[in-house]
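Inputs:
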Amino acid sequence: MGLYSEEIRNITDKSSKQLFEFAVADENNAEKIGYSNYSYWRSTWKSFLKNKVAVSLLILVIAIVLFVLIQPYLPNQKSPTEIYLDPETGYQARNVPPNEEFWFGTNSIGQDLWSRIWAGTRTSLFIGVVVAIVEAIIGITIGALWGYSRKLEAPLTHAYNVIENIPTTIVLILMSLILRPSITTIIVAMCITGWVEMARFIRNQIVILRDREYNLASRTLGTPSYRIILKNLLPYLISIIMLRMSLAVPYAIGAEVFLTYIGLGLPVSEPSLGNLINEGRVLMMSPDLRYQLLFPSIVLSVITISFYIIGNSFADAADPKNHV
Amino acid sequence: MKKYLLFLLACIVMMLTACSDDEETKDESVFRTVYSGEVKTLNYLKTSETNEFAVAANLVDGLIEYDKYGIVQPGLAESWETNEDASVWTFRLRKGVKWVDHEGNEVAEVTAKDFVDGLHYVLDAKNESSTAWIATVVKNGNAFYEGEITDFSQVGVKALDEYTLEYTLEGPTPYFLSMLNYVCFFPVYGEFLAEKGDSFGTSKENLLYNGSYILTEFEPQNKRVLTKNPTYWDHENVLIDKIEYKYNKEAATVAPELFLRGEVDEAAIPTAILDDWFKDSEKKELIRQSRSNFYSYFYALNFNPQFDAEYEPENWKIAVNNKNFRKSLFHALDRVSAMLTDEPYNPESLLNNTITPKNFVDIDGVDYTQLEPLAKFTNNDSFNPDLALEYKEKAMAELQGKATFPVKVLMPYNSGMPDWANRSQVIEQQMENLLGKDYIDIIVYAGPSTGFLGEVRRPGKFAFMEVNWGPDYADPSTYTDPFTIGGTYNKPELAEGYTDTNGQPIYENMVNKAKAAIDFAERYELFAEAEAFLIEEAFVVPYKVGGTGYVASKLNPFDAQYSPFGVTMEKFKGQKLLDKPMNNEEFKEAKAQWEKERAEALAKASQ
Amino acid sequence: MLGYIVKRLLQSVVTLFVIITVVFFLLRLLPEEGYLGAAADKMTPEQQEVYLTNLGLRDPILVQLGNFYLDLLRGDLGKSITYRTDVPVIDIIADKIVYSFAFGVAAVALSIIVGVPLGIFMAQFKGRWLDRLGTGYIVFIVAVPSMVYYLLIQVYITDFLNLPMLFNEDKPITWVLPLISLSLGPIASYAMWMRRYMVDELNKDYIKLARAKGVKERTIMFRHVMRNAFIPLAQYLPATILLTITGSIYIESLYSIPGMGGLLVDAIQRQDNPVVQALVLLFSSLGIIGLFLGDVAMALVDPRIKFGKGESVR
């Protein structure tokens, strides 16, 4: 105290001019203070880049996706559905082990496994991505309404309890039986059950966030509801949404494998990872033929694990709490 | 951490030591197998599924049975006779045959009334018997089923006394004996049936046995054990003492491995792993072909296309009514190449060049398929690329301006059957490459896996499709049913330009004429002509017989009782366990030997 | 508390009612062909009609629904049509439930006994070899299709140890492999979950404070961190245990275990409506009861939660 008391006592002795200076209004400085160079996406991206494993897997996944898309147009590619004939016998080139001609060998009717695997990956990834996007759109919309609107709360909660408690298997099987076996059927069957989880997550988060002070302030200022949901709430949910979406892809691929296992998957003439693995399963006991199971399993494993790890690290990176 | 590991290890070791392998001493002969399709009922009066009457066949005997060459032998009936036109049949029953329960205790004697009670149950619609349609051969059977008659005594089955049974039929039925091989003509002890009501046949306790085996254990989706019936009338011909079935839904995957380890005595070897087994010198010795059955598979050309407009049904209709177009498809189908999808090692052995398979019926030792009208098809492969292209040229010339090329050919398959899916792809490519994509465009279409026939074949939603038909009794007329009016296959009655003078389709007239003939030689000749007509006009392309695949088995299939239809082939009676399984060479030898002996036996029987 | 329970129960009954009705209508969308089975080809259309009428499928759909509920009120779940003809559905389920439940509970126990400590150790030795090993295991389980490694385990381990391949009730040694296979997945998820939870929790301020105060590491672990970790576990455990009775379709198929796995799939594919409806009823009720018990358990474990305030949606 003693240190400053002298000074304070002497304040009156000094002229006010010595104590305060007039600040000159400076446009440039004003700009600097009002503007922060914090960008949500840039920070997210920055902290994501710190995770080396995830980045390399992301590159791998992008490479796979690109490769799967351009593979049919590369030179020397075979058709995934054409049956190749053995020039000696004139009949199908059955179960040819991997060689120069057929890089991954052929299956039991002489189709080229290399191109079938990429065609199958294309189909499965397509199913996975479409399911993830549809689930996200429906899930977020309904979840946001459910969490934010008090009128819709009760009916949606009841609907949720019903849908959540119908065993997923039943819906999957019934849908596949009632509709024709096709890609659309599989996507529809998975979306019918898939969005519920997403909606619940969004709803729970929104319930937590909606009564925070800043939202209350927003409301009292007359901000419309849709703006509050879009601008105030959703950005907080990005990390959860990203995580769930990236997990939805491998989940959908897995569900496709399961449906194929119980005999309701895509027709064999339509290559998919589920089909390839299911066909290869019987061959597990035969050392010579095991390559037919090995390659699709590896592709499936790589894709699954990549999405898991990328999803998790992206969720960490997207969490604003980790940005400081 | 270490504690946990130790604890786990201890648990495992304890479990390992707790159970020493207690190997049973084997005096009796036991046959063990795994199966993946469970029976849904033991009620043999209700079922029509093969795996279900396969169980019943060993538990309950009918009036007749067959020997291993397919000649009718007395079963529960010791002797029988028929009237002039084969419409009234009288059977004299074996005396002293007993119904026993699952513990082998005698319950009652088998009498003629048991057969009447059995038929009564089958023909009562509320029992939902799915074999009732066979039993309607008996006079007033259909009327009773559909409720037009309520008094069962008007139906043509009578117990004249305890040991005499009489059937009166709707019309002349020379092949009636073969129908007795079906479960719907099996006996049932009426009092027991009444007592059990709906629960009859739901468990081993709710069933009585008079056959070669007793069901001593029955736990659905787990296991089933058949034990030799000591009171069986013919028990010295029952050579296997015990049959153990273990359920395994993944049998296709694990059964071959189980066989190699000696845990089962029979396993089907899926086509997919055949290569592996044939390349291994030891495993090769263990497998053989399985015996073919009498399901006939053929490709049908549809005359009543009802599929979606995007596949151009009208255009197909124009094309299919052109004989040259049909014949070009007929000769273009490379059946061996198609067959490789489920029989890669001996594809020719299963091909079938007629609708009626070989060895089905014969006249004086001459096989039906070798009768004059059919012989030329039987002995030649329909696949002929040169002829196919020749017919293609003609068809293109004739259809110029009428049909648009390429003709879209809708070829559906059941998406629940991977082999069929593969086959469809093979055929699509093979036929399009041969005939040219400017001529036909085969569209492979995945149909639903359940209710396939009801969604695709019966409503006519196909152009060219693999279909099959199984016989119901020993007469060629059984193979005409799909093609006569009311059939739900390819509707040949709608083919243009095949109407006879009386306004009926030519084929219909030929079949009706054949059905009216009672003399076997004449009858078979007429049926052969009708069948030859179907093939000659390329309404169908015969393809193969059923029963494909390879097995590793300690049974000799030629020991078994033999008949093309009904339950006889499922009986274990007469079969014995081999020390080691047959390989395919031995199988082929045994088959040749059996065919020779059979011809002799048939010739002898017809004298 | 009591009011809350009653309210929850009433809600559950309504939910069940809706679920069963929805599934009832869905089942009626299946093709009729399925009811006829192999005999369809041989029956005349009239005979098919008689057959379907006798099954009750020709009644107006509301009458069918009404009959179903009347029977249900009487405690009658009906008889199977195509799965095991004329056998009461209750008996079919009762036979199988024992196996699946036994294996399920054992597998849950094993997974927790192995998975939770594994997660804790992984968190404690974060970044060291144990953590890496555990992560490797988790990655493997997540990535490789389970149908592939189940089969490998069955074939190679039975071969190596000279064991019978199939399940046999009388030989306990044959119970081990299916149990272990069944637990592999849950072990991975418990370990993953536990590790993540521990790592998050150990970074929290109250732990730092406790450390700063000089509380022993062991006490921090057991008194603070793990206690909190068991709250969510307590919430999900009842549902997890109850739903183990649904069985594992693939493991039960491979080892010939006569359990519930696959029953639902089989029943739907054979269009055995009474069996499907009974199973839906069973699974949904168990799910609902499980959630309810979970809430109660959580309230008992977690002193912060009071009943009756706000509704509960998880």
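Chain B touches chain A at residues 252-253, 256-257, 270-273, 275-277, 279, 336-337, 340-341, 344, 413, 415-416, 418, 421-422, 424-426, 429, 444, 446-450 (CB under 8 Å). Flag for discussion at group meeting.
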